[in-house]
Amino acid sequence: AKRDGKSHIGLYDPVEGDLSSVRLNFQHAVERALAANEFVLHFQPIVDMQDGRIVGAEALVRWLDPERGMVPPAEFIPLAEATGRIGAIGQWVFHHACRNAARWLRQGHDLHVAVNLSAVQFASANLAVRLREEMLSANLAPSRVVIEVTETAVMQDVERSLGVLNALHALGIGMAIDDFGTGYSSLAYLRRLPAQTIKIDQSFVRDVDTDSEDLAIVRAIVALARALGRKTVAEGIENAQQWKLLQAIGVDYGQGYWLGRPVPEDELRALLGSNQGR
Ligand code: C2E
Ligand code: CA
Ligand code: CA
Ligand code: CA
User: Fold this and answer.
1) Which atom of ligand 1 is least distant from the CA of 72?
2) Distance between alpha carbon 120 and the CA centroid of its chain, in Å?
3) What is the pLDDT of residues 128-182, one digit of tens each?
4) Number of other CB atoms surrounding residue 240 within 10 Å
5) Is 19 helix (H, G, I), strand (E, B) or coil?
6) Is the shortest distance between the CB of 175 and ligand 1 below 6 Å?
7) Which of 1 and 119 is assigned the larger pLDDT?
8) Atom of ligand 1 minimally distant from the CA of 86
9) What number of other Cβ atoms are within 10 A of residue 189's Cβ?
10) What is the torsion angle, in degrees rounded to the nearest 10, for the CA atoms of residue 24, residue 26, residue 30 and residue 33?
11) Following DSSP, what letter does each residue of 159-213 receive, concatenated?
12) Residue closest by Cα to atom 20 of ligand 1
């Protein structure tokens, strides 16, 4: 239970006692954080590998906790999934991602917004209905939205996932397979997923310029994507060597600190204002 009566969360505080009370505290903390508007979205540019221009932005959530400061998603998304709170956070994320994207488009910028969905979210049958309502009320065309899902998430319940993902596809929403190559999945399912894009996980990109096996893996993913008519995004590009190499291999889009870190919305708009590419 809370000891100080304030908004202290104490997620992993051993004094808090058993796991169930930690979970309960966390659930309350999320409700409070939503009510107090403590979540923020940062946006990371996704750029065209040919000319370096920004073609999209991935929404990445952060928790601005008054006491702990900026909490990264790795520290609360897994717990939010385990406690059933990811639905509320995910709804908040989608709402704000759509509103921001609609604003960029109104201001004349031509790009899409990419939003991460966890398995728990797309296990819900009425997800397509709710996302459709959000896009309608934001006045945002579904073609401007790409949802990112991991193979592992899809594999938790393949038939059900395919049903929901196909319903989203039917709305005109784009889909990318996130962290490709790290999950367990069969290539047969890749063929059945309505995904236009494959995101090559940053673990393969990190040493692509020095490790010949990583290079071979990236080449193989690009060849596979091409053969299946899908686009590729390389994640985690941190230097010019990686950029040049991935460009030469024929990766379509890139993302990474070297191209642009995740930034608050006003900083992203500043980048869009001078979106000349490289
Ligand atoms: P992800 O979807 O794979 O997102 C990419 C992560 O890599 C982000 O971490 C991003 O900041 C980081 N990154 C980008 N470029 C580089 C680079 O050049 N080098 C390195 N080392 N890292 C880079 P972040 O923002 O901490 O997010 C971590 C994960 O949390 C995400 O991985 C995603 O799985 C999850 N996540 C973030 N926002 C959401 C959300 O709104 N909903 C859900 N369900 N999950 C989210
Ligand atoms: Ca992602
Ligand atoms: Ca990823
Ligand atoms: Ca990841």
Assistant:
1) 26
2) 14
3) 999 999 999 999 999 999 999 998 888 888 899 999 999 999 999 999 999 998 8
4) 11
5) helix
6) no
7) 119
8) 44
9) 15
10) 120
11) HHHHHHHHHHHHHT-EEEEEEETTS---HHHHHHS--SEEEE-HHHHTTTTT-HH
12) 236
